[in-house]
Design brief:
Blueprint lengths: L2 H14 L4 E5 L3 H15 L3 E5 L3 E4 L16 H10 L5 E5 L8 H12 L7 E6 L6 H4 L2 E4 L6 H18 L9 H11 L4 H13 L6 H14 L6 E4 L12 H14 L13 E6 L5 H12 L3 E4 L1 H7 L4 H15 L2 E5 L3 H4 L8 H15 L3 E7 L7 H4 L6 E5 L4 H14 L9 H7 L5 H17 L6 H10 L3 H4 L1 H11 L4 E2 L2
Parallel strand pairs: 1-5, 1-6, 2-4, 4-5, 8-11, 8-12, 9-10, 10-11, 12-13
Antiparallel strand pairs: 2-3, 7-9
Helix pairs in contact: 1-2, 3-4, 6-8, 7-9, 8-9, 12-13, 13-15, 17-18, 17-19, 19-20
The structure holds adenosine-5'-diphosphate and magnesium ion.
Length: 498
């Protein structure tokens, strides 16, 4: 399939639908201008461009020699000049967005649009970001420059490889077909010029496209697609060897990893959508979410609902949709929604924003088949029932307080993590002392005992650890009732993670 004519098609449709204004948000002005030139030639209409630096000038012919008037520099003058043109034409207004809060500019645009029946001028507004005032919105169509598809991206890689080769005594760029396939897949969602930049930097360091390049590329890509805090790239993923217990969850994820990677033999299987981890606070849900990315060897993106609400008043939904789209562009990736209940709680008194957010999220989840979602929740009371319904996510796991064997494992993990030999300690005995402790509380006991050791100028030993465990009042004692309720709720609705 050729995408150039398709690009033109959409633009042509907008023209045929007689939209006097066409809004284009793009960072790829040159590519848009190429398209407009083609379109103007096909439609046999003149093409003009306006920019603050050059004023209004004709683009499709070299008219400098014929131009008797000075180019209209000021936006208002340019629009008046356009109004005076009697023959239908295309105009592209480059970076016109700063003038769209000027009443005279807006009125002139509206005049031009309403005059369309008389003189069919089409004005294309092209900026990196564009929000039209309401009085113009209804008169304007929106056009998006499509991103290059896999075939075009492959061609770009080939072009850049050849170019490197020419500059390096015709040495060949080293890579293998799997890495190359992943490279192209990971470039999806980027504009041609951004993709080219990233391909170039992947090749230039060593004349090879390797797995290390893919990791660097994912980071760079994320930065290009910046969502300012709402969606963040987590550099710290975890490994499941750092997570005690949760055996059922680990097995379940292990079965899905090859499908996630679309390994041979998994072609007929449905893409895994993700999972929701519900459970006691401090049970390792957030840690496990990070470990999923480690296990899948995929980038980890974190969606922060708090930032969605706080940073962009009135724009939360739009930003949610954009973040989800961005996550798709980063696919294959793991999208982590920590404490999701805080983002989409049912009874929030916010004028319906969170309900609409939930709606957008559910719609996306139903259609998503490229991003693996790991959501976590501590508070079931705030969890909307729609989210729990089958089909949105593949499975809901319940993360209970660790049993004795798991507690021993968690002790060993946190001792080892801090440079101790787990074998020097009797972890099963410690497990026996910590009935009702969460993973986080076990970690805190280890941390506290180490402080005590330093204060007493001795090496960490069982006695110090035992003392620390006995001093701790686990949350599960204070929270006995809510935890019992949580367990009752989880029965039948969820699968035990451990
Ligand atoms: N099962 C576990 N294995 C190892 N460490 C754990 C476990 N559960 C909790 N921890 C420790 O406690 C910290 C806090 O746990 P966290 O993942 O934030 O729990 P949750 O998200 O369920 O509230 C973790 O970063 C980890 O150091
Ligand atoms: Mg957490």
């Amino acid at each position: 399939m050729h995408s150039r004519p398709a690009e033109l098609d959409v633009l042509s449709h907008l023209i045929d639908a007689e939209f006097p204004l066409v809004a284009v948000e793009t960072h790829e002005e040159p590519r848009l201008l190429v398209l407009l030139r083609k379109l103007a030639a096909m439609r046999k209409r003149p093409l003009f461009a306006w920019s603050a630096s050059e004023g209004l000038r004709r683009l499709d012919l070299n008219m400098d020699a014929f131009e008797e008037e000075a180019p209209a520099q000021a936006p208002v003058d340019a629009l008046r000049r356009i109004r005076a043109h009697r023959a239908p034409a295309f105009y592209v207004l480059l970076d016109f967005h700063p003038y769209l809060d000027h009443p005279e500019v807006v009125r002139l645009l509206k005049d031009l649009a309403q005059d369309y029946g008389r003189v069919a001028h089409t004005l294309v507004l092209a900026s990196h970001a564009l929000s039209l005032p309401p009085e113009l919105k209804r008169l304007a169509g929106r056009y998006e420059l499509p991103m290059p598809d896999s075939r075009e991206l492959e061609a770009l890689v080939r072009e850049e490889a050849n170019r490197w080769s020419r500059g390096n005594a015709h040495a060949k760029v080293k890579t293998d077909s799997q890495t190359l396939g992943l490279l192209v897949r990971n470039l999806r969602g980027l504009s041609t010029s951004d993709a080219r930049t990233l391909i170039r930097s992947a090749i230039v360091d060593d004349g090879a496209i390797t797995e290390a390049d893919l990791r660097a590329l994912n980071r760079a890509k994320f930065e290009l697609l910046d969502m300012e805090g709402v969606l963040s790239f987590e550099h710290e993923t975890a490994r499941f060897t750092e997570v005690g217990g949760l055996a059922a969850l680990k097995t379940w994820l292990g079965q899905r990893a090859p499908v996630f990677h679309r390994e041979t033999g998994t072609e007929g299987l449905d893409a895994p959508k993700g999972t929701l981890l519900v459970g006691v606070q401090g049970g390792g849900k957030s840690l496990a979410a990070k470990a999923v990315a480690g296990l899948f060897g995929a980038p980890l993106l974190r969606l922060d609902f708090g930032a969605l609400y706080n940073k962009y008043h009135g724009e939360s939904e739009r930003n949610l949709r954009q973040s989800l789209k961005l996550a798709e562009q980063m696919a294959p990736c793991v999208l982590w929604m920590d404490e999701i209940e805080k983002g989409v709680s049912q009874d929030a008194n916010d004028g319906g924003t969170s309900r609409r957010m939930l709606g957008s999220l559910l719609t996306w989840m139903a259609e998503n088949n490229s991003v693996f979602v790991v959501a976590t929740a501590n508070d079931i009371h705030q969890l909307p029932p729609e989210l729990i319904r089958k089909g949105r996510l593949d499975e809901i796991f319940f993360v209970d307080l660790p049993d004795s064997a798991t507690r021993a494992e968690i002790f060993a993990i946190h001792l080892a993590k801090r440079g101790h030999q787990a074998g020097d300690f009797d972890c099963p005995v410690l497990a026996g002392l910590t009935e009702g402790f969460s993973g986080a509380e076990i970690e805190q006991a280890v941390v506290g005992a180490r402080y005590a050791a330093v204060a007493a100028k001795r090496v960490l030993d069982m006695e110090l650890l035992r003392g620390e465990c006995q001093r701790t009042q686990p949350l599960s004692v204070v929270m006995a009732e809510p935890i019992a309720e949580l367990r009752a709720w989880a029965k039948g609705r969820t699968v035990p993670a451990g």
